[in-house]
Amino acid sequence: MHQSDHDIRNRLLIARLPAMPQILIKLIEHLQADDLGMQELAALVGADAGMSAKILSVANSSAYHRSARSIGLEQSLVALGTDMIKMLVIGESVFQTFNSFPHSGSTDLRSFWKQSLTAAVIARELARGMAYAQPEEAYLAGLLHNVGRLALLATAPQEYAFNFTARDDEDLCAVEQRTLQITHSEAGAWLIERWQLDSFLADSVLYHHEPSSRLEASHPLIRIVRVAHLLSHHAADDEAIAGSLGLCGLERDAIDAIMAAAERQVAKSAAQLGIDLAGADDVPAPYAHAAPPADPVQQRLADEVRNLVLVSEVGQAFARQQGEGGLLESMTRSARILFDFDHTVILLESAGGQALVGAPGGEPQRVAEFSVPLDQDGALAAAARERRLAFIDGAGAQLGLAEQQLLRILGTDSMVCLPLVAGTRCLGVLVGGVAQWQVAQCRKREKFMHAFGVQAASALETTLLERGQARRQLAHAAEEYREASRRVVHEVNNPLAIIKNYLSVLDHKLARHEPVVGEMSILNEEIDRVGQLISGLAELPEGAAAHAGRAQVTDCARVVEDVVRLFRATDFVPPSVQLVASVDSEASEVDVDADVLKQILINLVKNAIEALPDGGKIEIVNRGRVNRERRMYVELAVSDNGPGLAPEVMANLFSKVRSAKEGPHHGLGLSIVHALAGKIGALIACRSGRAGTSFELLLPVRGDASISAGAQARALDSV
Fold first, then answer.
1. Which of 22, 53, 473, 504 pairs with 601 at a CA distance of 20 to 30 A?
2. Is residue 492 situated within a structural domain?
3. In whole angstroms, what is the distance from residue 400 CA to residue 377 CA?
């Protein structure tokens, strides 16, 4: 094969075929509709050769893994999905509008569309007349029989711009062969063969310029397309048409009816699409000739505009994805479509940032086990470290092991490494497999690839941040629940111990037939307290805080009496420890929850008892009212004459630290006391020395007294 022939065929692989603007507008409108039907969409796409070719090409590419391939447009559209169809339609629209296709908005392109659709309708009527089993396949073959002309225009606009408007005859094929080393028949057939359809569709496109005498024994689809081509493009050539009638078993009288039906159908389709066909047949078709070179500056500007719009659409498509898996799949599929990668894999930065690892859920599955250390030599690691595109040729010297492995995984002889850069951080690398001849084309699109990588990295960064935030929230909630569980277990031990001791007292009194009304009342109270503590575990921290800190008028003297009675009536207080209370009833009403205050005092007294293993004295004293920062409090102190607290214990007194006591929950008591005091608006302080330890509680007094104290303080300030 001639080298230039090889080049043009390679370029055909990545060609973008122009479509009629009206069709594209209709497609976009339908794609925006919520009640979009694939059957209706297939009918609309089927009215345009360029879009039909593009849809079939993508749907049958390696990006969509399907065991069974079909040439039906509706099945292809279903396989692609709305998002990908929209991307293709938008891409084609932008390409046509901004890429300076010759006469893309004038009559010559409308004439091409009319002739293609006319050939399609005629082919379907011929198939029905011949009882051909697949008339819709004949329609598609007629529509695409000249798709090679669109492909050559898209692939080589400089060389083919003028030839596209030339007369569609054997002379055109000769000029095409001389200038491009390939005819439009060969180009169209070669493209369709790449779709791997189990059909004679490619053959019908390839041979539609063959003399009718050579096609008499050929497949019916080939004969149908040949006749449809002559009737749609050379209706005035009576000799050629007469020589082709036998291919489909036609009589001359049937031609007029077929042509009239085709004309009505095309006019109806044009009216539905809003395409004005007036004057479309009046465009002169010159003989083929070579075209002058296009303006490179204008071409470059058109490419920039096209890439800008495509990148914006890609970013919106990424933003619509749900979850990391959906985003990664969208990234790989979009890259394969936009850059014609054979296969694509994504390697993400590891948690420690030391390596690139295969993204989970990719194809093939072994990619998830692939890892590339970032500190090693090689183009792949360098692309991530330096945040730049890398083009790797499989035939290059000193290729690293990681690069060799990836080339085998991708099944290609070259690859493109696109770093996914968000700010100054490289989140990973998208690796696309390409043929060696495609590398030069990829280099020309380097800016577009970079912009694609930025969009992909931005969407990926957002997804990773959301995933990290969700994990942190779960971890925080779990830690809060564990901490709440430890507090509840710690606090429940106090009433359970009291219940146990009172049951012992109750047992002795019942044996002596003494009244137990007081003991039963205390047991009921402590059982209720256990229930409240356990139910608090199910509350949210805000709800628990609001419940615990609910202000009410409480007689702290009565609470102290209840606590002292609890300890004295049981074995909680050993004989060597004296527990006394001195409470001034005149200054004992405070705005705190009685149950919370009781819980605080039980913890403090219990700690004081444990601080006096050799015996001693514990006092609960009401020291009266205190003005602290213009607020009135009642000071309640719990003191012991023990050895005092060590300095390191004092330094971390109310923190959640492990104490020297036995058991899994010791060391939590004072942190719980501090938290409970904060919830009821109380202040707590500790004094400790050789003479013992004293915990001082400042409890807010009743609301009216507090207001009065505030008023008095303001009056003193004004003197």
1. 504
2. no
3. 8
* Structural tokens at position 381: 């690691």
Same domain as 188, residue 283: yes
Of residues 87, 82, 85, 86, the one with CA closest to residue 35 = 82
Instruction: State the Cα–Cα distance between residues 156 and 479, nearest whole angstrom.
Output: 65
Per the CB < 8 A criterion, the answer to whether 460 and 326 are in contact is no
56: closest CA among 204, 199, 184? 199
Q: Are residues 647 and 681 in the same domain?
A: yes
Tell me how far apart the alpha carbons of residues 307 and 156 are, in angstroms, rounded to a whole number. 19
Per-residue confidence (pLDDT) for residue 688, from 0 to 100: 92
Q: Please check whether residues 608 and 659 belong to one and the same domain.
A: yes
pLDDT-based confidence at residue 204 (cuts at 50, 70, 90): very high
- Rounded Cα–Cα distance for residues 160 and 182 (Å): 12
Round the average pLDDT of the chain to a whole number and report it: 77
- Domain count for the chain: 3
Angle (deg, nearest 10), helices 135-144 and 220-233: 50
Residue 286 lies in a domain: yes
| pLDDT: which is higher, 96 or 27 | 27
Task: Please give the share of the chain, as a percent, with pLDDT higher than 90.
Answer: 13
DSSP 48: -
Residues 460 and 323 in one domain: yes
Do both 99 and 230 map to the same domain?
A: yes
How many Å apart are CA 694 and CA 691, to the nearest integer? 10
CATH of the domain at 345: 3.30.450.40
From 294, 327, 357, the end of a domain falls on 294
pLDDT of residue 602: 85
Among 220, 219, 214, 240, which Cα is nearest to 229's?
240
Expressed in angstroms, the distance from the first to the final Cα of the chain is 109
Q: Which domain holds residue 279?
A: 3-294
Give yes or no for residue 168 having a pLDDT over 60: yes
- pLDDT value, residue 226: 94
Displacement of CA 177 from its chain's centroid (Å): 49
Which domain-ending residue is among 294, 328, 355? 294
**Which residue reads 């915990």 in tokens?**
695
Judgement on whether residues 259 and 380 belong to the same structural domain of the protein: no
Does the model's pTM come out above 0.90? no
Q: Tell me the percentage of the chain whose pLDDT exceeds 70.
A: 72
CA 289 from chain centre, in angstroms, equals 52
Q: Compute the C-alpha angle 178/182/185, nearest 5°.
A: 125
pLDDT at 228: 94
Of 8, 165, 156, 18, which Cα lies nearest the Cα of 98?
Answer: 18
Residue 494 has pLDDT above 70, yes or no: no
pLDDT at 224: 95
Q: 113: which residues sit within 8 A by CB, 6+ positions away?
A: 20, 48, 49, 275
Most distant CA pair in the chain: distance in Å?
132
Judge whether 584 lies within some domain. Answer: yes
Give the number of other CB atoms < 10 A from CB of residue 598: 22
Both 361 and 278 in one domain: the answer is: no
- Cα–Cα distances in angstroms (integers) from residue 55 to residues 38, 76, 80, 234, in the given order: 13, 7, 8, 29
Query: What beta strand segments (E) does 45-117 contain?
Result: none
Q: Which strand (E) or helix (H) includes residue 418?
A: strand 414-422
Model pLDDT, residue 698? 94
Q: What is the CATH number of the domain that holds 61?
A: 1.10.3210.10
Using alpha carbons, select from 447, 350, 429, 329 the residue that is nearest to residue 386: 429
Question: Is-contact 524 502, C-beta < 8 A?
Answer: no
Q: Is 704 exposed, middle or buried (0-12, 13-18, 19+ CB in 10 A)?
A: exposed
